Amino acid sequence: MPIDTEEEPVFQRAVPNRESLRSPRGSVVSFHNIQYSVKISSGPPCKRTTIHKQILCKINGLMKPGLNAILGPTGGGKSSLLDVLAARKDPAGLSGDVLIDGAPQPANFKCISGYVVQDDVVMGTLTVRENLLFSAALRLPTSISFKDKEERVENVISELGLTKVADSRVGTELIRGVSGGERKRTNIGMELITEPPVLFLDEPTTGLDASTANAVLILLKRLSRKGRTIVLSIHQPRYSIFKLFDSLTLLAAGKMMYHGPAKSALAYFSSIVNSVPSLSGYECESYNNPADFFLDVINGDSTAVAASKEITSTHNQENERTKDGILETVNPQDPVAADKSVVDTLNKEYLDSTQFQSVQDALNKIEANRGMKKKKKRRMESITYATSFFTQLYWVTKRSFKNLIRNPQASVAQILVSVVLGLIVGAIFFGVKLDNTGIQNRVGSLFFITTNQAFGSVSAIELFIKDKKLFIHQYTSGYYRLSAYFFSILLGDLIPMRTMPGIVFSLITYWMIGFQRHPGNFFFFMFTVIMVSYTSTSMALAISAGMDVAAIANLIITVCFVFMIIFSGLLVNLTSVMSWINWLKYFSIPRYGLTALQVNEFRGLYFCADKSNQSTSFDGIMKPGLNAVLGPSGGGKSSLLDVLAARKDPAGLSGDVLIDGAPQPANFKCISGYVVQDDVVMGNLTVLENLLFSAALRLPTSISFEDKEERVANVISELGLTRVADSRVGTELIRGVSGGERKRTSIGMELITEPPVLFLDEPTTGLDASTANAVLILLKRLSRRGRTIIFSIHQPRSSIFKLFDSLTLLAAGKMMYHGPANAALGYFDSIGYICEPHNNPPDFFLDVINGDSTAVAASRAGPSRDDQDNESGGEGNLKTVVDTLSEKYMDSTQYRSIQDALRNIEDRRGTNRNGRRMESITYATSFFTQLYWVTKRTFKNLIRNPQASVGEVLVNLILGLFAGVIFFGAKLDSTGIQNRVGALFFVTTTQCFSSVAATEVVIKEKKLLIHQYTSGYYRLSAYFFAILLGDVIPMATVPGLVYSLITYWMMGFQRLAGNFFFFMLTVIMVSYTATSLALAVGTGMDSVAVANLIIEMCLIFMYIFSGFLVNLPSVPAWINWLKYFSIPRYGMTALEVNELRGLYFCVKSDESPSFQSAMVNCSRNIKPHGGVCYGEVYLCGQGIGYDNWAMWENIVALACMTVICFGIAYVKLHTMRKFT
Questions:
Q1: What does the alpha-carbon distance between residue 691 and residue 693 come to, in Å, rounded to a whole number?
Q2: Model confidence pTM above 0.85
């Protein structure tokens, strides 16, 4: 029989048309023996080893029209499988077949399918309708008229329920836009425009609250019922979401645990054999969310089997593993740490099941339909476009321009900054004259203009970086070509934002400074300024294109510009630079700009004078045990916790908080424990060192240090931290302990004092499900030893909820329930709200409070129409539900029993009621003890952070060598003064700008400082002086010493010991003063970026008044006083006097002027004949004396400024807000 060799079937729906848009039809996605691995390299470059890590292993399955969910633990392969099915995975290391309706996945499948990424990628400054119209204009073919495209957009808006917000902007960080759910629906709409055969979504509920996530999944369910195929990955969905799934795929460690109907999953798990020999089947407990149950089973830490099979008496025992008496916690979300045998067993059970066999039968039928037709090799993936280059160029340019004009921070602000800066520069250099100051002032102003244009273009680095995710997604999806995007960015954003500010800046500065009043000169000036801006911007784009972090690109471009400025021709005489390094001048953008502007301005000018002219109420009780405060976002959980912990601003606060029936002591926040939401521990210290720091400062001096160490050891043992006691906690750059161990360290810091009450704000934030469970089990064990533990929590899982002793439910600042946690379901049942069997009780409570619960409908009304949107009933409806629930609680027996208990406490308290005491902070140790320990901690943090210590010294070493090479061996000739003064200017400004990093010293530790100061660890004065002794002074001294040792001798300054040590002293004093200014600005602020911007603006104006760019005696008196605030001026003046005194720069002859005559001419402001020969004459011309006091007065001024700035920083530290 002849073999059929005809070609394989081809997927037909390659291009959307009018018919496919009117009648959605989903495709069947089948995947056959999918395997995917990646190469991982490790080890040093000389001994590099490469291993293959298997990500997906023999994955087979079928996705039909409907809602298809992929579920599994972190690292299990969910997103990898989704990307493989969507043709968005690197084909290297990938094998197997993905068929669409039985045909091979087309090469351009990622362009014709829909893919909603995890992070929303829409243009925030555009409206919902404009975003959707952009997608329609570029992704629908030209055969569809623009009117039909607009009609398609309106249909999608209506279908997604976006009609009310269609003309609202989506929103950015600075522009308030639509809600999170509406933003997610806009993303879905962008993909639905083409009515794709398959719609993929990666973690569509990420970043959404419970109600919004529920609404988004209900929307997807409705879309799937119209015939669409929707495939999504999701992590830990709640029960109301799980019920919506049609098919469920469970993955772990790249292997399949289950694939089939979602409604059959529970029955499947109950039918398989458990790894425990004496038990069979995995049974889901009542009130346990099936999705959580599946993850527990996969992770090997499920309590479901034990709870259903073991006797009731063991119900409250903790599910822990111990070894040598020490608690061990396993992070099951990590596939490496998870129990491999459980995953392998579950995978084998699935492969032997009838469910797997039925899937294989269906796949075999699809393969049989392919028959013996010739199978092609995997096609190279390609991107196809529905529109032409010019259509894409028009629409992307239009979008870029809209984004520009609707973003005032990038458009109007840029022009306003140019106006303000132009006016200030114009005022400083106003009306330059044709006298002996004219050349210096003109060159200084032109230098400032070119460098300002260069540095002003640094902001262009964000142009590609901030929209990188949006660009990659839309380019990969076939919206536009790379060339169209690139040229549209130039036309719609780059050129306008580099042209208009340059024109405005030129119009102001040129005429105010008083340059040559000729139209030709002015227009050439403007053209040069704009060209410098264009060139600098293009360089910024060349460096930043393809990078992910703006900070790194910013650092690289700033370093490049710094070296370009050195070779601009002002700081150093380029003709005197050694030839082997002089070629670097050809790469200096400021040099070309400055040279062009100098020629344009100086031609035809004469600078020598003619010789002839010569309230809400709360009541409740928290007892020893685990007391949880639960409620929706903004409900008042954290506020109530802060009030109970005496950490709330007393303004606007009334009522009483009693501790054991007595008034809350004034120093309660110092004697209680409070674990904040964001862990505040020193990352460069070990777990042991952090706990010892707490013990040394919070336990009184009456306890010996040995007893304090013993207390620390006990806490470490109690918290199960023995194995990691000597491991660093970890920072952004240093890998440390796990998230759970970090949280336990934070708890240990508070347990050191054995507080009467321990408060915790959202202790599970940032932890995965298993780690959060382990932390709450630890807290439960601590509470069983008689401790009172109160904490706020958002959406705990059922296994955590079972640990609670008491529960407080809050919403809109009102109490919905307060009482035993195990009685909460009964209470809600009594007022008409019944929880479904597999619903998580906390989710149920929040649903009831939010007014969007399906529990009541399901239990009272029977089956209802699922097509209806069961979304939140709106803000007004929520308020009605909250008021109703609050009133029902106030009328309940539970509330009356609480009131009776409170009255008994009040009666025992009697009539002795004092007014609210002023809160105070008490300390267990003296000032010097605190100073010692905080200084020790600060110094340890410094030396263990190479980026801040060794890195700073290395930067100064390299910068010193580079500057030394450029200014090497300054000579006593006509270039000597220029090169020396340029070198001294560079030295002082470098020290100033390198001190900007000091702004981070207090800002990055602000949360840690506020928490520890409020808790009574140390006085503000001890902290402040410790920061100076352990960080600020060493980091300003050592780099200054290194820099001085290199630059002084390489530059060839006077070889006298006294001059060298004075040079070193001045450099260090400049660094101290600039650092103190940075501290004064940064203290109390929240943003490092804002502090850096302010300090850099201050330093820029300071270096204008340094005396190098402008001749200070020629500056108008009304603005000349600003020079007294210039740190570089004091440093440069001291260094100039130190270096130039006693030097002679001319060839000696009989006609050479004597020192006395030269000084007389200088004092009369007469330009010396034949140029400046004496260093003292140059100093005189700059308005600088040349005696000893002329040097030391600047050191005194720097010292005074340092003390004043440190004083300002200390005052700001005291006035900093310390309440929540």
A1: 5
A2: no
Overall average pLDDT of the 275-280 stretch = 48
For residue 1032, give the nearest of 1191, 1171, 1215, 1210 by alpha carbon: 1210
For the chain, the helix, strand and coil percentages under 3-state DSSP, each to the nearest 5:
55, 10, 35
Please check the confidence at residue 21 and state whether its pLDDT lies above 80: no
331, 768 in Cβ contact below 8 A? Answer: yes
DSSP 8-class letter at 1030: I
Q: How much is the pLDDT for 43?
A: 61
Write the secondary structure of 944-1008 as one string of H (helix), E (strand) and C (coil).
Answer: CCCCCCHHHHHHHHHHHHHHHHHCCCCCCCCCHHHHHHHHHHHHHHHHHHHHHHHHHHHHCCHHH
| Structure confidence at residue 523 as a pLDDT band (50, 70, 90) | very high
How many residues does the structure list for the chain? 1220
Sheet bearing 29-42, strands edge to edge: 49-63, 29-42, 94-100, 103-104
DSSP run (H or E) holding 42: strand 29-42
- The residue among 1039, 1029, 1099, 1033 whose CA lies nearest residue 1064 is 1039
Of 721, 636, 650, the residue nearest 686 (C-alpha): 721
Indicate the average pLDDT of the chain: 81
Alpha-carbon gap, residue 698 to 612, rounded angstroms = 82
**Kind of pairing between the strands at 49-63 and 66-71:** unpaired
- Kindly list the distances between the CA atom of residue 554 and the CA atoms of 533, 540, 652, 960, in Å, as whole numbers in the listed order: 16, 8, 45, 22
Amino acid at 1176: E
Per-residue pLDDT tens over the stretch 1081-1102? 888 777 777 777 788 788 888 8
What b/e string do you get for 1182-1218 counting C-beta neighbours within 10 Å, with b at 16 or more? Answer: bebebeeebbebbbebbeebbeebbebbbebbeebee
- Within 10 A of 876 (CB to CB), how many other CB atoms are there? 9
- Whether the CB-CB separation of 231 and 83 falls below 8 Å is answered with no
Computed on alpha carbons and rounded to an integer, the radius of gyration of the chain in Å comes to 36
Percent over 70 (pLDDT), the chain: 86
Distance CA 880, CA 886 (A): 10
User: Helix/strand/coil (H, E, C) string of 613-659?
Assistant: CCCCCCCCCCCCEEEEEECCCCCCHHHHHHHHCCCCCCCCCCCCCEE
Q: Is the pLDDT of residue 814 over 50?
A: yes
Phi, psi (deg, nearest 5) at residue 814: -120, 155
Residue type for 1061, please? F
Task: Give burial (CB, 10 Å; 0-12/13-18/19+) of 1124.
Answer: exposed
Query: Could you tell me which residues are beta bridge partners of residue 37?
Result: 54
Q: How far apart are CA 1197 and CA 1069, in angstroms?
A: 10
Contacts 24+ apart (CB under 8 A), 150-156: 152/21, 152/193, 153/129, 153/193, 156/132, 156/189, 156/192, 156/193
More confident residue, 693 or 435: 693
Three-state secondary-structure class, residue 853: coil
Residue 1187 scores a pLDDT above 80: yes
Contact criterion met (CB below 8 Å) for 34 and 89: no
User: How far is Cα 910 from Cα 250, in angstroms, rounded to an integer?
Assistant: 62
Distances (CA, A) of 374 to 8, 29, 87, 360, 381: 6, 20, 22, 22, 20
- Answer yes or no: is pLDDT of 871 > 50: no
Distance separating alpha carbons of residues 886 and 877, to the nearest angstrom = 14
pLDDT tops 80 at residue 18: no
Q: How far apart are CA 502 and CA 506, in angstroms?
A: 6
d(CA 52, CA 935): 48
User: Pick from 283, 312, 203, 303: which is nearest to 776 by CA?
Assistant: 303
List the one residue out of 512, 791, 537 whose CA is nearest residue 640: 791
